[in-house]
């Protein structure tokens, strides 16, 4: 029998994840594995406009990281998905860089896609969980 997953829910969005039947993040072996985050409003609908949608995706990501005691500085690996990347990359990238922080930066994989369930940008990360001091 496997052990239960150590799920992290950001404040106020648990019902959205339960409705869509996935976990926002799972703690495992010293890491936090975060599901892809999009620029969704509290009701799950897309934020209008590409740049605001990217910013909201980072806000949603940062709420999950904070719920696990992390920040973007703890992120070690990033995957971004961009609809019509050839057209949209130059618009997306400045918003990403505004949230990226200082070097050393996490690893990055960028993927151009044709569809993201009504969204134009998605970010998925793996973060190193902070070490806790032994009592």
From TrEMBL:
Please identify the protein, giving its name as recorded.
Rid family hydrolase
Q: Name one GO molecular function term.
A: hydrolase activity
Pfam families cross-referenced by the UniProt entry:
Ribonuc_L-PSP (PF01042)
Q: Which UniProt keywords apply?
A: Hydrolase
Keyword Hydrolase belongs to the record: yes
* Species annotation: Pelomonas dachongensis
């Amino acid at each position: 029998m496997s052990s239960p997953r150590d799920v992290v829910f950001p404040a106020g969005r648990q019902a959205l994840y339960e409705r869509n039947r996935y976990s926002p993040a799972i703690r495992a072996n010293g890491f936090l594995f975060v599901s892809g985050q999009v620029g969704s409003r509290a009701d799950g609908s897309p934020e209008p406009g590409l740049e605001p949608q990217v910013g909201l995706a980072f806000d949603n990501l940062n709420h999950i990281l904070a719920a696990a005691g992390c920040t973007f500085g703890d992120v070690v690996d990033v995957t971004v998905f961009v609809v019509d990347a050839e057209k949209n990359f130059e618009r997306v990238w400045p918003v990403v860089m505004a949230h990226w922080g200082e070097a050393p930066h996490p690893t990055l994989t960028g993927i151009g896609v044709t569809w993201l369930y009504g969204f134009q940008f998605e970010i998925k990360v793996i973060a190193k969980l902070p070490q806790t001091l032994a009592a």
